[in-house]
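ok so for the tutorial part 2 we go from a plain amino acid sequence to predicted structure tokens. step 1 is just haveing the sequence, like this:
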Amino acid sequence: MTDATHGSDASNDGSDDRIIRIGSGQGFWGDDLEAPVRQVEGGPLDYLMMDYLAEVTMSIMQKQRSRNPEAGYARDFIPLMERIFPKIVEGGVRIVTNAGGVNPLGCGEAVVAAGRASGVGGKARVGVVTGDDLRERLPELVSAGHELRNMETGAHIEEILDRVESANAYIGAGPIVRALQGGADVIVTGRSTDTALTYAPMMHEFGWAEDDWDRLAHGVVAGHINECGAQASGGNALVDWWTIPAMEAVGFPIVEARADGSFVVTKHPGTGGRVNRPVVTEQLLYEMGDPSEYITPDVVADFTSLRLEEVGPDRVRVSGIRGGPATDFLKVSIAYEDGYKAVGTLVYAWPDAAAKARASARILRERLDRLGLRFDEVRVELVGWDSTHGHLAGPPPADLPEVQLRVAVRGQDRAAVERFTRELAPLVLTGSPSVTGFAGGRPRVQEIMAYWPALIRKEAVQPHLDVQILEV
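step 2 — the prediction. this is what the tokens look like for a chain of 472 residues:
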């Protein structure tokens, strides 16, 4: 444990020489469940951020909640908290996470129960941030003139309003800071921006003002590095990937932050993985649009201004980042029903594996046409040859040992998609030879959740954000 003082009223003039250690514990819902345990047990830490949400995750959670009103959050977060609660209370480690999904209050109450079950009753508080969920408010917002146009197509939200499954505004650091000021040891949010899970603790600890653009920009970059877990400490790295050690017990990244905004990216000693300039650079480029204008709810960060410097083994210093005023808008992630899909596969063996697969795909297409089945899209891929690079893969060699034929259809007519699922298996005996596996059996019809990104003025969301503090 470092000498951080929670609820700090430290000056933001840069004279504060403390170091706040903010570790990453999850990069997505389904990430390494042992990573948070390694983080809280592996060495000193002040905060642990855990990012669970992606665009499609919200719609999955909403589907779960529609079947069970008590669901709608990352359920595996609860047994994890029960496991580490005694350790974080003992060490003073505070948790900041968006595991709340579309039901942050339900998640918060489950965390309280987990704390009591773990034996820390009366020793901790849980802060819950709500108000990002706009689904029930959409008709009211549209009537008030918020068009929520699709940022990619310009289409008006009314085109899909009756098919919306989830709608959540990306909120910034403000409510998280309020929860920390209220003494919360665990903060659960809904659709917080990934980066705010890291820079909100920095704002709180160092007393940064809401218009301290350069320091906030440093926090955003720190959050961007932390948000994907081990991707910033050697996982999924391209440069010299085969030399990265002990990935079976990879150390997740830790940001060592200072009051002036600068920070060092590192990991616990003795853990696997690697933190160096190439690895951190790759993470900085992840999901990057215009690097000079990385827009968040609290600041616009200029990633082109940052400086990276290796200052020791598994230690990269980040500094020099410039920031500018935030925009007047928040991004809204909307998921809506958009028909059905099914995906089926067959494996073809040498010789002429690719030619056999392509011939069977042609036979299947002609049979679907004869049946009068129409789809919005039919996609054919040869896994093992062109599924990654498409036409850039060029013609397959004749000695290709095997390929997997993957055929996918999507459309609005569920019955047509269902009929497609019955037409793949007959190819085993009525198509090209050498089928070696009907992987997974008959394809399953799945509902399609499409993504609708939009913008909304902040004043439509901010008054509805609320922070509750629950006693464990």
